[in-house]
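My current task is to audit a protein record that another person submitted. My question to you is simply how this chain folds and whether the tokens agree. This is what I was given:
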Amino acid sequence: MRHHESIRHTTNVVYSILLIGFIYAVQLVLPLYAASSFLSTFTNEQAVGMLFTFGSVVTVIGAFFIERILERFGNYKTSITLIVMSMGLLYGLISGGSIWVVGTCFVLVTATIALLGLNLDIYLETYTDTGHTGGVRGLYMSVCNIGWVMAPLLGAMLIGAGNNYRNVYIGAFSLLFILLYLVHKNLRGFKDPHYSHIALTRTLSRVLEHHNLSKLFAANIILNTFYAWMVIYIPIYLHTTIGFSWDQIGMILTIMLLPFIIFQFPAGKLADKGLGEKKMMSIGFLILGVSTMSLAFLHGNNFIAWTLALFVTRIGAAVAEVMIEAYFFKKVSAENADLLSSFRITRYIAYIIAPAITAIGLFYTTSANVFIILGLIVLWALRYSLTIKDIV
């Protein structure tokens, strides 16, 4: 009887984490695609790329210290603190009138929100058994991706014809109150796993010594470099170079992100049934690389053509992403906070790489041809996905 009650409690907590993940995703993405355009009202595009880079550097530094923070304060207190800090920083973005205030708040909130995502990973991983990792991760990512799909359209509506970019930050600020309530209500009794305290150098050595993990990390960096480039530059490109309105961009981005809802959960289930992360990951990267290069040949403001082309890129990305997630969490438990934080910071290492791709690419070629460079970088991930060893 007690065993059944424990299972029921765990299931309820997992459902609560799914809801928390959804709210987290909406408040994260709501200002995400408008951030570069908002920041460009204070400074130039090169400086915008640098702000994203600074935000990523601070995130990486924070991730290196997160294990010690978790050991001392626990996951619940840490996540509550990060939410409250994010509220203050978003208020600074809403009310700030100079690039120094807005830029500083943007850099810091990038880190606090990112580290909060790591907290949610620990909650979910603690309540998930290994045999259902792919399905649970696929379901969690699908629920979060519903938020990712909804947020750009909602953000475009909030921005409106008057380019009122601060409205998306007001929306994200409001959602953090809901997130604070849900985390407090459902997770305040969370019992932390034992976090293995391992120095950064040892963590990196563990990754490098484990050939499959190091290949997975490399593939994840490449995938997130694609995401980072798209987040920073595709809204500006579609708005200023192609000439789409924000209403059109919101619709394009919403449809573009649908593959994350459509494909990730069934792909995760297929991985659990033994189809193989290696094969599916490679197919995803192949689709993503080829379709990204094809964007270089779209020059007009044909709404259907751009929507379809970007939709196809996300089919590849969705499959590659869920296979990377399933593989990693089948190999790594919640106690390995050092590996988990290292894995998550690959996303922000990508934000350091992405502006460099554009800077170097634009020095030698046109902005459209940067898509070809990005596509070739994505195809390089096949070197890792094709040689990784499938989990038996």
Notes: The domain at 2-385 is CATH 1.20.1250.20 (Growth Hormone; Chain: A;). The chain has one domain: 2-385.
